[in-house]
Amino acid sequence: MQWMPDGWKPKAVAVDIDGTITDYNKKLHLGAIESLRRLEEAGIPVILATGNVRAITYGLSRFIGATGPMVCENGGVVWHPKWDEPIVRADGARARKCAQEMAKDIDIDPKGITTNAWRESEWCLFKDEDLDAVNNWVSNSEYSDLTVVKTGFAIHLMEPHLSKGEGLKVALEKMELSPDDVLAVGDAPNDIPMFQLVGHSVAVGGCFDTLAAVAKVISPHPHGDTFKPLVDSILN
């Protein structure tokens, strides 16, 4: 199959973590990690673009050997260790307060997922909460401007200006790269703004239908199995 447009090669690759280089049990795909290292060895920086928190993203970035900035919390936090400070693009206190107020009216756990302990810009509910009930409550509350996005791992409550696309814009400006020169790889609806921003996009096999609808290429291989043939195509 044709993974890349004719005559086009990315100058950077933005990669989601959960469900893209992991499976839905959050186990890393070691072949995907090796493929990302091959990109780095070829001078193509890897940007981790994730809904996960900065601490986890930083650890994974170090262990992979990724040299690009990190886009964390769906664009809420953008950071590279060489920068003086992270760019925190929202205060997560309001999203957290939204969850607390919501729990007074509908049956949810306002404490949400474990990584909320380190969240800086948003708040996450468990993925199995009733999404329709959450959306209905938010849309009829003082928090109606917040964005609600469900992935395979959580329901994210975010300020409306946050998205992976907007966060990636910030990272690429720091790198002095055009979005047209970037490849994005992902699996879930929170990857849609990133796919719409960049020059080329690949959805891994098993992705959400909403992401498949905007992807330039849909992999026939699930999750991390996508990366070896994809990177072979880029480098060869």
Count of β-strands: 11
Output the CATH class name of the largest domain.
Answer: Alpha Beta
The secondary-structure class comes to alpha/beta
CATH topology of the largest domain: Rossmann fold
- Rounded to an integer in angstroms, the radius of gyration calculated over CA atoms is 17 Å
N to C succession of SSEs: EHEHEEEHEHEEHEHEHEH
Provide the domain count: 2
Mean pLDDT: 97
Helix content: 25-40%
Q: Would you identify the CATH H-level superfamily of the largest domain? A: HAD superfamily/HAD-like
Query: Largest beta sheet, briefly?
Result: 8 strands, mixed
Named at the architecture level, the CATH assignment of the largest domain is 3-Layer(aba) Sandwich
As a percent range, the share of strand residues is 15-25%
Summed up, the helix count is: 8
Strand order of the largest sheet: 5-4-3-2-1-9-10-11
Quaternary status? single chain
**3D shape:** globular
N- to C-terminal separation?
Answer: 14 Å
Uncertain segments of ≥5 residues (pLDDT<50)?
A: none
Describe the overall structure.
Helix content is 31%, strand content 19%. The chain is of the alpha/beta class and 236 residues long. The chain folds into 2 domains: 12-88 and 162-235, HAD superfamily/HAD-like (Rossmann fold), CATH 3.40.50.1000; 93-158, Hypothetical Protein Ta0175, Chain: A, domain 2. The strands form 2 sheets. The protein has an 8-stranded mixed sheet with strand order 5-4-3-2-1-9-10-11, with helices on both faces. Helix 7 (209-212) links the parallel strand 10 and strand 11 (217-222). Helix 1 runs parallel beside helix 8 (227-235). The mean pLDDT is 97.
